[in-house]
Amino acid sequence: MAAVARGRGLPRAWLCRRAGPGCGRHYRAALCAQLKQPLAIEEVASRPVRPHEVRVDVHFCGVNFADILVCRGQYQEKPQLPFTPGMEFSGTVLETGTDVSTVKEGDQVIGVSGFNGMAEECIVDQKTLWQIPEGVPLREAATLPVSYGTAILALEHRACTRPGETVLVTAAAGATGLAVVDVATNVLQAQVIAAAGSDEKCKLAMQKGAQSTVNYGQGGLKEAVRKLVGSGGVNVAIDTVGGDVFLEALRSLAWEGRIVVVGFAGGSIASVPANLLLLKNVSAMGLYWGRYKEQNFPVFSRTLSSALQYCQQGLIQPHVGAVFKLEEVERDLDTEEDGHVKTGTENGVMQP
């Protein structure tokens, strides 16, 4: 994934902290006490773990687009105020409940939380933790759940992408887009066309492995794709933009092509022209990553296990652009009207 450093259009930032021994009575957490207002870093009282729960010393936590939306009150999930954002994290197990059998104290893990990962410690159910295999750094492991979990679900489970097929990826320089390019190219051996809104973003997608790029800031996506692959079209499209970009990606599909709707970062939700589905026997399907945790947990868990395995094998290489300290959330992170994260300074990694 690409973390936010400076400027617009890069997908996410990372928070890190210095891990301390043991579990204190209080810990620091980023709190959203009022929607559309800056986060505050406050001391929060620790609570006991329940029998099935695990307390994790958080080393890294991702800042996703969903975190921005939930802090605005614009996400489909609306936690009660005050709450702590943060959907994914990596860290070290501090304490386990009496019924926990999957991890033990000292294990390095990645975890998925509802919205409470942006803190020095996090308590989660044991089933939402996965052990980090040897050779996978904590920083890179923390990038895997949301973006790579989404990419693997979209490509493997929903679109059933096959080696040699052509995959069109929109918003290809975003966190999810880069993960889709990485998995499609280096795991599934597909031919990837990366579409983004600037030459700089296209270059980043090429570095991740895309065979060709389209800058849809300079013209229509459909015509640009046609020049690359001819009238036959692409087999798979993964779209996170919505609006006109989605419609052009849909029109770029080949016979029996598949398009997966992942999000609407462009802010517009398009209506699907049913005649386009009929004429070329194409399929349009949705992917709500977090819903799999409740509706089909075995599939959800398998995608994260696959992401860790791919990372250990060196097949995928998550992109991290910058790392920020926890206390910098309050000072440096802001949100812009187009939904991108903006930061005021670039910082190095704070070692645990």
Automatic annotation (TrEMBL):
Molecular function per GO: oxidoreductase activity
A GO-annotated cellular component: mitochondrion
Domain Enoyl reductase (ER) residue range list: 34-341
Pfam families the UniProt entry points to: ADH_N (PF08240), ADH_zinc_N (PF00107)
Family the UniProt entry places it in: Belongs to the zinc-containing alcohol dehydrogenase family. Quinone oxidoreductase subfamily.
Name assigned to this protein: Quinone oxidoreductase-like protein 2
Organism whose genome encodes this protein: Neomonachus schauinslandi
Phylogenetic placement of the source organism: Eukaryota, Metazoa, Chordata, Craniata, Vertebrata
Gene label: LOC110573986
